[in-house]
Amino acid sequence: MSGRIIPDILTKETVRAVFKGDIIGREMIFYEVTSSTNDRAMEIARQRNSGVDPGSTSQRKGIDGIVIIADAQECGRGRFGRDWISPAGMNLYFTVLLEPAFSPKEASIVTLMASVAVVSAIREHVNQNVVIKWPNDILIGAKKIGGILTEMKTSGGSISFIALGVGINVNMPLNMLPDDIRSFAASLKAETGENINRVQLLGGVLTKLEYWYKILLEGRREALLNEWMILNSTIGNKVSVKTRGTVISGKAEGISNNGELLLRLSSGTLEKLCSGEVTILKDSR
Ligand code: BTN
Fold first, then answer.
1. With a threshold of 0.85, does the pTM exceed it?
2. How far is CA 60 from CA 27, 48, 52, 204, 274, in A?
3. Greater pLDDT, 259 or 3
């Protein structure tokens, strides 16, 4: 199909025509509609690894890199139990199963990896200043156009698998978003005025994921963190972070090796946060 126009229909054939990875997407599973690609991914991981000793890497049944893609989701999930609006034919919803030999403490780096892959792929498609807001938001200006939901199953102190879910609002008209979300969310088409081919964009994101996942597996975490620093809009700002039922404010000073946010409180204390919801305070640099 290469050299030909790729139809904007998510099938094995169209996606294979734009992307072939060694690890990511070795196997791709497509649904016209499913509940949630993260739920499907976790079911597949459990089925394939049933009977496998979770501590043993040699017994694993090769789920690393399986990609589950849906054209629509009936129960798309965001962080904090929120819904992820998932109509058919206009956006991207997919989950990548990973089995990295990291400790569960280091798993947040995978969210950073996905955000770097998504932002750099979108930047190659549209001429917009797309940025990452720690830890998982993909923004154009102050508008959220994508998000990452990283879920993990651990066993005996190690990672059994990670389900890395990615949602990108591609061609969705704004009137499909509920009123309360419309003030801070958008789609690539709403921001650029252009229709974007989802298959080409998905190919771009998977290509970047393959690149950065290999870098992580080679132990070159610093290269990923450097790229994340270039693409993020959080560090250097005064922020408030809702985390574990409280809100704390301070200056976002940097990121740890595992992807935690380093927050300098007004008392001078440096807090390390592994999750939370960041608000960037106005005029904060
Ligand atoms: C967020 O920003 O809160 C995360 C949104 C993640 C949405 C994606 S869509 C594909 C995958 N399946 C889900 O149910 N959620 C993730």
1. yes
2. 15, 9, 6, 28, 28
3. 259
